[in-house]
Amino acid sequence: MSRKKPPQITNGEQPVKNDLPDDEFDEGDDASEVSASELAPISLRLTDDAIGQRLDKVLSGLIPEFSRNRIQQWIEDGYVTVDGAPAKGKMTMLGDEQVEVAPQSAPQDHAYGPEPMALDILHEDKSIIVLDKPAGLVVHPAAGNWSGTLLNGLLHHCPGLANVPRAGIVHRLDKETSGLMVVAKTLSAQTDLVRQLQARTMKRQYLALVWGLPQLSGTVDAPMARHPRDRIKMAVSQSMTAKPAVTHYRRLATGLIDSKPVSLVHCRLETGRTHQIRVHLQSLGFPLVGDALYGKQHLASVFPRQALQAARLGLTHPTSGKFRQWAAPLPQDIADLLVRAGIDPALAMIPEMSSEPDPMTGDLDDDEY
Q: Phi then psi for 9, rounded to 5 degrees?
């Protein structure tokens, strides 16, 4: 069952766009499908209209509020009977059968509930939470990950976040990217943080280990869009749907992994497109170490995830109005990878950021790196 997209966050009369992309929502089933927990068992007496038709097709027509895939799963799991006997999805109806359906909750029906979770919180006050997300943790419930997400952990840690859209989440990191995120604890704080993202005054800087030897510093100014053939991927594109994307990078150190050159790179973003750092560096010929989606497939086993860390975060505090910044410690797995490459982990340092705004362009972030 797909979730309806959340309403816009508003402050006064001006709507504030939500900076999480629409495609985070499941597109598999119809958004109007209701929760199974809202319905009692369903009894149906079939008519001649059902003669010669498969049971799952008949039921999808009689109870259209549920998707056919979901009905097929109920049949397979034994929650549908025909004349008192367990049903089979491919059975052909003769008409006049008595069908009983016991609707069952789908995992997504409970996707937005609290779950105990250890959170690495670097800062918390009445307005915001700054945390260090580990690799492997999904930020928001979606198809394939209806539980065990950061959102579920946040709701357990701070139940009041149930009153804030998306439990206060205003930006996200890809599942296998580790590092800093900020979460709003109030609607006013969330509105303020989203506007900082829109205005490009929130600063996010990253560390990446890439294959190859990029030049000492440079800028990738290349629009991005969904890959034309592989919906999971993004790509540099000149299509009408492409959005501006700008990444500044600086090489910090070089080393070798299995006799192949690698470089430690500091990245600063002007825009926050989905997979932006991964796509931009790959477009230069320097894919991230461990990136199975965009990287060198024959080298994917070198590291179990993309070697990417959201290392430093700076923002104007929504209550005090003062510029604040935080740095995340280097994860042990990336530190070990640097040692393997002959790079001193101490070189993986990003200097403190200025409170002055960076010269930035573009529109709202997609925010998944």
A: -75, 135
Q: Which residues are paired to 314 by β-bridges?
A: 203, 325
Residue with tokens 């490009």: 200
Is the whole model's pTM more than 0.90, yes or no? no
CA atoms within 13 A on the CB side of 201: 16
Contacts of 67 (CB under 8 A, 6+ apart): 1, 28, 29, 30, 33, 60
Return the percentage of the chain with pLDDT > 90, whole number. Answer: 66
Indicate the SS3 state at residue 248: strand
* pLDDT, tens digit, 9 for 90 and up, residues 92-108: 999 999 999 998 876 66
Average pLDDT over residues 293-317: 93
Give me 247's structure tokens.
């990444």
Would you tell me how many other CB atoms lie within 10 Å of the CB of residue 164?
Answer: 21
**Residue 217 and residue 265 in contact, taking contact as beta carbons nearer than 8 Å:** no
Helix, strand, coil shares, percent, the chain, to 5: 25, 25, 50
Strands 217-221 and 246-257: antiparallel
Amino acid identity, position 262: V
Indicate which residues carry an active-site annotation.
Answer: 174
Other Cβ atoms less than 10 A from the Cβ of 341: the count is 22
Dmax of the chain from CA atoms?
A: 77
